[in-house]
Amino acid sequence: MAKVRTAFFCKNCGAESAKWLGKCPACGEWNTYVEEVIEKSSATGVPKMAGDQPRQKPQIKNLTEVTVLTSFRIRTGDGELDRVLGGGIVPGSLILVGGQPGIGKSTLLLQFALKQKRKILYVSGEESEEQIKLRADRVGIQNDQCFVYTETNVATILHEAARLQPEVMIIDSIQTITTPYIDSTSGSISQVRECAGELQRFAKESNIPVIIIGHITKEGGIAGPKLLEHIVDVVLQFEGDQHYAYRIIRTLKNRFGSTDEIGIYAMDMQGLREVSNPSELLISPNADNLSGSTIAASLEGLRPLLIETQALVSPSVYGTAQRSATGFDLRRLSMLLAVLEKRCGLPFGQHDVFLNIAGGIRVSDPAIDLAVVSALISSIENIPVARNICFAGEVGLSGEIRPASRVEQRIAEAARLGFTTIYIPEFKSEMVKLNQSKTEIKTLSKIDDLLREIFA
Ligand code: TYD
Ligand code: MG
After folding, report:
1. For residues 168 and 161, what is the distance between their CA atoms, to the nearest angstrom?
2. What percent of the chain lies above the pLDDT cut of 90?
3. How confident is the model at residue 50 (pLDDT cuts 50, 70, 90)?
């Protein structure tokens, strides 16, 4: 009888250890080790994949003899997805799409499968064929080249996939499939790691690209193993708020392209719709004469995006003032408030502050600071900011307006959307002379300039 063998795995990085450890020596995290049963098949040396022919051994080659196949890419038929993938799917690649439950990962990939004229295999360990069919009906695309398979055993899946020879295989999700050679439950670290390894081998050997869906934990990491990120070639993250219609797909890693790209979708009754003009949707049209609302000329990845920032500042009733931010870093908000208090003498200490980035978008671009600061001042002073003005610039600790990246692109987007004025950092003052658009460019060097220009 085979002995039950267990091992300890780090939940953060997937490192394995024979005994429990308080601190992971690989990633330095504390208290992340969990015990898992890994009873492997007693017959060692048997090929892992059941019913498989022995694998071809790779040969040592001179690099100059290696032919490159990556110039060919499978177009996904979805502009946003192609953009984040760097132009399409590279044959033989392994792509991970991560995201929180209910965000629309299955919808995105089923839609992709249905839009293709190619043979696609959609493997689901989560939903029944009927459920998938219902979703396909909802999306409203008919396609006779899309195959579905509800199976969770990775060996069976790969065996069937090798028979069907699809052009792309989709696995929904990595946490539901299992390999029989490991005894722990599906979704555990050793299972995920082993299955991902099998899928990677399959992709490389058959040249069939595999897209895996992975769930994300509450903390935002791809559930369980970070090591999944090392195995795959491309990591895409699908994010957004379930309660808002907008979804952003971001490239976190791409062995075949840039990681600066994002794609934007809107979820509606017929599934996900590509949004090619996001700025127009993110700005509410009739917020004239309302204080606390300003527009930032921001960049998401490489794309200029005009977004609305809203602030509400009101005297705090209780002893300690409340701070809350949606779509913006709370610590950064505290820093901006401290700068305003210290440099401009505005009494934010006695006020509750709520900040919201419209549309459920999360912004990481530091150049949104200027718009946030303007919204805060606008709200505390109760002076509305005109809707045809937008801002781009980072605010430093001494109240200076620091340079923003790709100012030209921000100005071009503001001009395209008919903004009359854009405020940018002094540093880029040569832009004023070069300006050929109808949008007027004004420069600021300090927050005081902002107060004088707009709130005087
Ligand atoms: P789903 O793709 O199942 O999310 P995930 O695979 O990431 O868990 O879809 C999530 C949500 O999308 C679901 O709550 C319903 C909604 N939805 C729509 O609003 N419109 C649609 O056309 C579809 C198919 C789904
Ligand atoms: Mg799903």
Report:
1. 10
2. 43
3. very low
CB distance 240 to ligand 1 below 6 Å: no
What one-character-per-residue DSSP string does 170-215 give? EEE-TTT-B-TTS-SPTTSHHHHHHHHHHHHHHHHHH---EEEEEE
Q: What is the dihedral of CA 71, 74, 77, 82, to 10 degrees?
A: -50
Q: Residue 218: is its pLDDT beyond 70?
A: no
Q: Is the CB of 103 under 6 A from ligand 1?
A: yes
Take atom 17 of ligand 1 and give the residue whose Cα is closest: 271
Ligand 1, atom 9: nearest CA belongs to which residue?
104
Beta bridge partners of 7: 36
Nearest residue to 215 (alpha-carbon basis) of 96, 85, 109: 96
Residue nearest to atom 2 of ligand 1 (CA): 104
Say yes or no: CB of residue 170 within 6 Å of ligand 1.
no
Least confident of 164-168, 364-368, 430-434: 430-434
Q: Which ligand is nearest to the CA of 104?
A: 1
Nearest atom within ligand 1 for CA of residue 105: 7
Q: Which residues pair with 446 in a beta bridge?
A: 400
| Average pLDDT over the chain, rounded to an integer | 85
Distances (CA, A) of 260 to 241, 302, 435: 21, 6, 27
Check residue 48 and give its pLDDT. Answer: 47
- pLDDT class for 54, splitting at 50, 70, 90? low
Cα(303) to ligand 1 centroid in Å equals 26
What's the mean pLDDT in 372-376?
Answer: 96
